[in-house]
């Protein structure tokens, strides 16, 4: 397809997935508003309709819980094509039926980008209205996903990381007792190839974690204390650290000095804390199971987000450039979600190998900001080649470039429009 045709196709996908102010990831497989999908989608809309871009994020924040959490899914209307729906989650924390945990907090960074790219003259006003909500969400993350003040952010569910069946969760997930789930019917495997989706053993445990949190009424303090899964995630940690830097820039721009001081404290603590995720044997940041006090041993695409988080000291940058070049020798398209040299790598099984466009966007931003324009451009060019050959798929094989998962996917279209094209 020619470049201009792809632009048109990407815009058409966003418009078709638009439900009247918020966008679903794709029809059938994911029929609700997902948190970080929506935020990336705003970047795509901003290329042709900035007002609509703001609306996407504002509608996401309509679902914010009283305690500050912004849920990973908002169930604005019931749709039996997705499981687990609102009944399984049993939440009561906010104004819109929702899931019970969050997702990677990219919103502050995207709000900052929207302000920078503004052509409407209204961006600062809209950012100002969102700022207290962003602050509340970030405070929630620090209080309940880093209760011991380690300076790293944990996830209480693989779904909270956005990287569902990543090998980093395997061991911690195996330790979760399967209980209180009863018989259930998955819907994901009827929409897409089951060989590419998480296994049933994973799903049993995903639902067992939900059941355990439901039992404590999704009280955030109790969840942090008792949830059977509590793993510090380099993905959420680096996205959050980056989001704090962007939130600080916004607070400064808006002259909110008390907030700016508070955020500076968070950044300092996280810059220090993220060192605990550094695995000196693999020479990268990895996950850390806080319940068992154990680091994982694999490099994931999120390891590269250290640069996006602003951690580009010579040791980190040099190590990541080395891994980048090694992985580039192993696969045709960067960046696989898991290290192809690791025993758990699977090129087509969801988050165990495939390439995701929005992760590439963030990794490339990090390389560019660290002064490595060459590797940043390689990521952009690979993402463009993937979309040109595999279409606007949910994700892609790093080996063949084949598109997989759901089709007509919103965030892939948005990333094309904002960066890859
Ligand atoms: C995937 O996650 C959902 C659960 O949230 C699922 O597999 O059912 C992940 O890729 C996640 O990151 C993404 O936000 C969601 C919708 O695209 O799908």
UniProtKB/TrEMBL annotation:
Residue ranges of every copy of the Mannosylglycerate hydrolase MGH1-like glycoside hydrolase domain listed in the record: 30-412
GO biological process terms, alphabetically, are: oligosaccharide metabolic process; protein N-linked glycosylation
Keywords of this entry:
Glycosidase, Hydrolase
- Return the similarity comment: Belongs to the glycosyl hydrolase 63 family.
Q: Which organism is it from?
A: Roseibium aggregatum
A molecular function (GO) term: Glc3Man9GlcNAc2 oligosaccharide glucosidase activity
The record's InterPro entries line, in alphabetical order, gives: 6-hairpin_glycosidase_sf, 6hp_glycosidase-like_sf, Glycoside_hydrolase_63, MGH1-like_GH
Which superkingdom heads the taxonomic lineage of this protein's source? Answer: Bacteria
Q: Which SUPFAM superfamilies match?
A: Six-hairpin glycosidases
Its name, as the record gives it, is Alpha-glucosidase
């Amino acid at each position: 397809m020619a470049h201009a045709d792809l632009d048109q196709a990407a815009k058409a996908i966003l418009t078709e997935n638009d439900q009247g102010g918020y966008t679903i990831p794709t029809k059938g497989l994911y029929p609700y508003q997902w948190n970080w999908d929506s935020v990336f989608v705003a970047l795509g809309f901003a290329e042709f309709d900035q007002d609509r871009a703001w609306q996407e994020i504002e509608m996401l924040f309509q679902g914010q819980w009283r305690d500050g959490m912004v849920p990973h899914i908002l169930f604005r209307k019931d749709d039996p094509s997705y499981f687990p729906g609102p009944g399984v989650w049993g939440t009561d924390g906010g104004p819109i039926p929702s899931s019970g945990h969050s997702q990677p907090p990219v919103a502050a960074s995207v709000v900052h980008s929207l302000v920078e790219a503004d052509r409407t003259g209204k961006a600062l006003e809209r950012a100002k209205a969102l700022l207290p909500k962003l602050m509340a969400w970030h405070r929630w993350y620090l209080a309940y996903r880093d209760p011991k003040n380690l300076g790293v952010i944990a996830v209480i569910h693989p779904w909270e990381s956005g990287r569902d069946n990543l090998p980093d969760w395997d061991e911690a997930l195996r330790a979760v007792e399967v209980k209180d789930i009863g018989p259930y019917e998955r819907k994901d495997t009827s929409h897409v190839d089951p060989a590419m989706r998480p296994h049933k053993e994973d799903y049993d445990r995903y639902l067992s974690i939900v059941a355990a949190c439901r039992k404590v009424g999704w009280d955030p303090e109790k969840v942090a204390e008792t949830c059977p899964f509590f793993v510090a995630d380099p993905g959420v940690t680096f996205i959050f650290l980056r989001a704090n830097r962007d939130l600080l820039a916004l607070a400064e721009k808006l002259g909110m000095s008390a907030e700016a001081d508070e955020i500076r404290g968070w950044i300092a603590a996280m810059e220090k804390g993220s060192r605990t995720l550094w695995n000196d044997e693999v020479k990268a940041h990895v996950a850390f199971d806080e319940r068992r006090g154990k680091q994982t041993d694999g490099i994931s695409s999120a390891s590269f987000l250290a640069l996006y988080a602003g951690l580009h000291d010579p040791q980190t940058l040099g190590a990541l450039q080395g891994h980048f070049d090694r992985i580039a020798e192993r696969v045709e398209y960067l960046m696989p979600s898991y290290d192809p040299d690791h025993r758990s790598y699977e090129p087509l099984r969801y988050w165990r190998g495939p390439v995701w466009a929005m992760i590439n966007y963030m990794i490339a931003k990090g390389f560019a900001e660290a002064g490595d324009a060459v590797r940043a451009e390689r990521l952009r060019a690979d993402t463009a080649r993937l979309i040109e050959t595999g279409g606007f798929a949910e994700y892609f094989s790093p080996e063949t470039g084949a598109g997989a998962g759901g089709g007509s996917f919103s965030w892939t279209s948005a990333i094309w429009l904002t960066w890859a094209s």
